[in-house]
Amino acid sequence: MNWRLWARQITAIATLELKRFLLARRWTGVYLVTLAPVLLMFLRFSFASSRFEPVGALTGIYANLFHFFELRFAFFMGSAAVFTQLFRGDILEKTLHFYLLVPARREVIAVGKYVAGVAFVSVLFVISTVGTHLLIYAPSSEFGTFFLEGPGLSHLLRYVAVALLAGIVYGALFMLVGVRFKNSGVVTVGLLAWESLSFALPSTFQMFSVVHYFQGLLPVTVDRGPFAVLSEPVSSILGIPALLAATAAFLAASGWLVRSTQVTYSAD
């Protein structure tokens, strides 16, 4: 195994893909979905409505915003939009054959594209997380105390870690969806429903939901409603390895499928 050659090829492919990401206009929707919470928090900051709200109340508001909008919707849909198009986009643009003619293993091509996608969405997810987290506390007179003496900084770091993991895990999942299914939209809607409603399922079924493993990583627990089935959160010691193992499995499956990919543009 020539690991050095593969590393150079992955770096070259990821660099090329990142340039394509930055120049493409089709990611406007991804920008809007992932960065909309920052705009909303900026408007809230402009009106300084939280100046006299206690930090505890702001912490609960942000926990709900991050859990129900950013994690379950914005990061999910942003990952779906980007990663399902890593190969499907090349097929639609009739450029996939250029990659397949390159003297590189197809698994290496898949990993290179995945690395570029993770780098792209990670920047957006981190900006969204840091921006919203700071802006919601900014008008408060306890801002400095909360971040310098209280748990504010540790909360922020944990939210950022979850945002990065969301891009890594959902990215691998949706790259597999994009490689396996021509109509990835239907599968994406099904996965969104599963992730959104998994809290109401028995604990055994919740273990097959990605968001279930994020619960133990988040600094604040949120109320998921009267229909939620209580289950023990997975600790970070077990949750992070489980998420990374799932990511590796999704990537391996994508690489295996790409190996048998044939260029048939007329069929698409």
Describe the protein in words.
- With 268 residues, the protein is an all-alpha fold.
- It has one domain (8-267).
- The protein is 72% helix and 0% strand.
- The chain is built from 11 helices and no strands.
- Helix 3 (55-83) runs antiparallel to helix 6, helix 3 (55-83) packs antiparallel against helix 9 (184-197) and helix 6 packs antiparallel against helix 8.
- The longest helix is centred in the middle third of the chain and has 32 residues, at 106-137.
- The chain is globular, with a radius of gyration of 20 Å.
Unreliable spans: none
- The radius of gyration computed from the alpha-carbon positions, rounded to a whole number of angstroms, is 20 Å
**Derived structural class:** mainly alpha
Q: Main β-sheet, in a few words?
A: none
Number of strands: 0
Encode the helix/strand succession as letters.
HHHHHHHHHHH
Q: What's the end-to-end separation, in Å?
A: 35 Å
Count of alpha and pi helical runs: 11
Instruction: Indicate the multimeric state.
Output: single chain
Query: What's the domain count?
Result: 1
Please tell me what the overall shape is. globular
User: In percent, how helical is the residue content?
Assistant: over 70%
- How much of the sequence is in beta strands? under 5%
Mean pLDDT across all amino acids: 84
